[in-house]
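Subject: Predicted fold for Olfactory receptor, 316 residues

User T.R. writes:
Posting the sequence so we have a shared reference for the thread.
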Amino acid sequence: MALGSSSINSSSFLLTGFSGLEQQYPWISIPFSTIYAMVLLGNCLVLHVIRTEPSLHQPMFYFLAMLALTDLCMGLSTVHTVLGILWGFIGEISLDSCIAQSYFIHGLSFMESSVLLTMAFDRYVAICNPLRYSSILTTSRIFKIGLIIVGRSFFFITPPIINLKFFRYCHSHSLSHSFCLHQALLRLACSDIRFNSYYALMLVILTLLLDAVLILYSYVLILRAVLAIASQEKQHKLFQTCISHLCAVLLFYIPIISLTMVHRFGKHLSPVIHVLMGNIYILFPPLMNPIIYSVKTQQIRSRMLRLFSLDMCRDA
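User M.O. replies:
I've generated the structure tokens; pasting them so everyone works from the same file.
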């Protein structure tokens, strides 16, 4: 936006759109609006199908519903600032709103990581211990797992997020993205940020990195179990049940790693690259997960085809 830092007070921040492309915002807003519509529609559709189809009331699909709900909330947490900039409604955000948005963005990222880890455990039990699958993953246990995921994701990030409220901000007040992130606010702070920096690093190691290691370990165990089966047809069938989850894992971790690399080593890159990578990190997993699970999971695919065919029959 063509606003100077002098035009806003010390408790608000400039949101960064695609610098130098302001004249093209009406055109840029079209694909972004379409993507957000697809994120909201796709994840709502997955949730609706799982809720209304009794045959999908199984642990695997309960965890998929958690993933869809997380992706839906991620889209809702950023839609007002990303599209607000492109539509010309907003150019700045207050400190309190910025802190709240960063809390939900980071909490939902940790939540997605936790759900993906739980889904890996689900696949491990289903393949390596199928006879005890229903007794291990009971409905009450799944509910408790869901509560633990929410608590783990949002409780431990509270101290550094609250701490942001008490910092002094005396730099340019221009954020590096179309939404608020913890690390972006730290770069604008003039206070002692060591607690937040070290705490955030430990949190990433003990959540995102640990989850990634445990997901990898679970797939090593799954691979060993599958390769021990003599029938190649059965091996192929078991591998097929894991493809959707593996795609979801890659869709989550690749954008995070890419965004981290851009922040760490890409200071010489155009601000547009930073903004684009930030939007890919926020939007790509919620956009692609419903598509992947709809295409690759036979039960979801058949139920959605039946849903659309019924709608077409009613229209006819």
